Backbone:
């Protein structure tokens, strides 16, 4: 079911980790951002779009994680974009012959095992480095690229609709997940990204995270502060006391605390390593 969150901006939520697909209406059709997760859900989205009489004229993936790279034949063959770094990361992923098998194997442990269409995964075109707008015939969509969470991660600001699409940041259900392999200083990159989002916060009436609830204007700063507090705690080796971790995490989402423990351990290892004289 599509829910309108602002004029000409609609969201289709997946049951899997409350993943949000975002639809932006343009002149001749819609821009579809991170289409969704299971085949049935994307099918439902395709039905909704047909009812609206809106073909997909462009696609965009906010970052190179499998759950943001999916597509389905019924959505048509519009160009699908990502940042240059995102596209490069996807190319590298798909250059491994068994990439999709590995994703499928990882999914076996989740409630969407066998339900995710991987055929058209990741067929995106990288926009030239430094591109600040998605090329399409509709409201301007500004690309705010940064290196938090994943290589070439993009938040999208649709200023004339007051909407910020945050990708996998500013979630009310997931803790910040750092890109521990992709950058030399994942903590600093995350904090930089939060500052970039803070700079545009005043223009935002509606916040759409990649996973979790859509937030009203006040939520932007609340979630920026919450993410920053978590990252500071991680940096300083403190327990963050984050409401998104621990027993309050929903059943089946224990991996949120696993991610947390893993991040702490790996950051500790990096720090130990850095302190070792050579
Ligand atoms: Zn995600």
Residues:
């Amino acid at each position: 079911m599509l829910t309108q969150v602002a004029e000409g901006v609609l969201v289709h939520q997946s049951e899997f980790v409350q993943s949000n697909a975002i639809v932006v209406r343009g002149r001749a059709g819609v821009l579809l951002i991170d289409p969704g997760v299971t085949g049935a859900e994307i099918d439902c989205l395709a039905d909704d779009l047909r009812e609206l009489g809106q073909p997909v004229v462009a696609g965009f993936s906010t970052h190179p994680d499998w759950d943001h790279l999916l597509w389905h034949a019924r959505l048509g063959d519009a160009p699908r974009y990502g940042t240059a770094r995102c596209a490069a990361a996807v190319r590298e992923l798909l250059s491994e012959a068994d990439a999709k098998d590995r994703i499928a194997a990882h999914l076996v442990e989740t409630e969407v095992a066998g339900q995710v269409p991987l055929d058209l995964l990741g067929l995106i075109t990288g926009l030239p480095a430094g591109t600040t707008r998605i090329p399409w015939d509709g409201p301007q969509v500004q690309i705010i690229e940064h290196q938090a969470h994943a290589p070439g991660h993009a938040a999208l600001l649709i200023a004339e609709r007051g909407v910020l699409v945050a990708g996998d940041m500013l979630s009310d259900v997931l803790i910040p997940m750092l890109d521990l392999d992709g950058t030399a200083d994942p903590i600093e990159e995350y904090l930089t990204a939060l500052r970039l989002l803070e700079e545009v916060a005043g223009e935002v009436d509606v916040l759409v995270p990649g996973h979790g609830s859509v937030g009203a204007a006040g939520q932007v700063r609340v979630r920026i502060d919450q993410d920053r507090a978590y990252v500071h705690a991680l940096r300083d080796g403190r327990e963050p006391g984050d409401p998104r971790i621990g027993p309050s995490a929903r059943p089946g989402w224990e991996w949120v605390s696993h991610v947390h423990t893993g991040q702490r351990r790996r950051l500790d290892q990096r720090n130990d390593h850095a302190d070792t004289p050579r």
In short: The chain is about 35% helix and 20% strand. The mean pLDDT is 93. The longest strand covers residues 20-25. Helices lie at 39-52, 84-95, 99-107, 186-200, 217-236, 255-275.
